[in-house]
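INFO batch 0412 | record 1 of 1 | parsing
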Amino acid sequence: MELKDYLPLIGVGVGWLLSEGSAFGKRSIERKRTVGKAISVLYFLCLEMIQLKMAQERFKNTSDDIKEWERLRQRSFEKYTVQDPEFFKSLTATVDAIGEYYPIEAYNLREIVNKYEFMKSKSLEKLTSSPALYMTTLSGYEAGFMAYQHKLELILRFLAFRQSKVIWFRIRLHFWRMRKQVPKGDVVFFQQVNGRKKGKCSESSVTNTANPPASEGENA
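INFO prediction complete | emitting tokens
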């Protein structure tokens, strides 16, 4: 067969490659656009959670009365969170859009959004009559809150890294600066919980070194 006999096949092949290349380019642009919008919405949500926790920690420093704590905690949900129901719809739409490209991250995001909405609507006022029970329950809620906040931050960084290394760096830098601004004693970020545990372990190690257990001769 001569070259001219292969020309139709070559033409079909080239046409298919051009079509696939064009479709790939459109999908890439659409993914960039979708992820970019998702980063904007999730970044806002993450900052809202951080500002909410910072406000609640600040309220704790103003009073030792747990009834006042709970009143201020409920007030913080009204003051520092978006009350517009359309915002929740936009979060849901964002999760669905992300699911087309990153299904595992979308599943985790859906859990974070649902748990966050639940925590905002949960009042512990009935438990204030029992301080011990209230403090135990509140500690559990706060630990869960920070865990979901940290999980959201990791997903946000994951999306930002795939979108743009510059955006990823700027987000990491912003969170690092916010952690540095947290007053000493306040626990706002999940990393601070790990830091406290390490600090306690270090203190325990120093104490044991300074006060070694008595030998059998000393006990006798």
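INFO post-check: The mean pLDDT is 78.
INFO record closed
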